[in-house]
Amino acid sequence: MSTKILVKLEFKEYQLSRCKPSTKTSAVIYTKKSWIDKEVCIIPMKLDITDRYIESQFNPETETYTMTVETDTILTKTIKNRQNIGRTYLPTELIGIDMLIIPKPVIENLY
């Protein structure tokens, strides 16, 4: 059994992308061009988290999405350019899982 945490997320932009096989030793997710060269957080989502659900969490007053997720994995990656499509490689055990991609937050004053 792995340790899971509840994380309250607030973000202004996102993409939901399914992790696909790339080679025998890696998996890949593809993103829109707008994510290329950006640092992002990638969080595996449960099957019931869809674009429709995320869109329902939008607050027009603050122009942000707010949701709480339970997870045991949060990856940080830089999205690379591959023929004008963003991509990044992930562990193979994530193949077939939808990933929430959000901008990596700047965390200050940790002490």
Overall description:
- The longest helix has 6 residues, at 51-56.
- Helix content is 5%, strand content 50%.
- The strands form three sheets. The protein has a four-stranded antiparallel β-sheet, with no helix packed on it. The protein has a four-stranded antiparallel β-sheet with strand order 3-4-10-9, with no helix packed on it. It has a three-stranded antiparallel β-sheet with strand order 1-7-6.
- A hairpin with a 2-residue loop joins strand 9 (80-82) and strand 10.
- The protein is globular, with a radius of gyration of 14 Å.
- The chain contains one helix and eleven strands, in the order βββββαββββββ.
- The chain starts with a strand and ends in an 8-residue tail after the last strand.
- It is mainly beta and 111 residues long.
- It has one helix spanning 51-56; strands spanning 5-11, 15-18, 20-23, 26-31, 39-44, 58-59, 64-71, 75-78, 80-82, 85-90, 98-103.
- The mean pLDDT is 91.
How is this structure best summarized?
By secondary structure, this protein is mostly beta strands. It has one helix at residues 51-56; strands at residues 5-11, 15-18, 20-23, 26-31, 39-44, 58-59, 64-71, 75-78, 80-82, 85-90, 98-103. The strands form three sheets. Strands 2-11-5-8 form a four-stranded antiparallel sheet, with no helix packed on it. A four-stranded antiparallel sheet has the order 3-4-10-9, with no helix packed on it. It has a three-stranded antiparallel sheet with strand order 1-7-6.
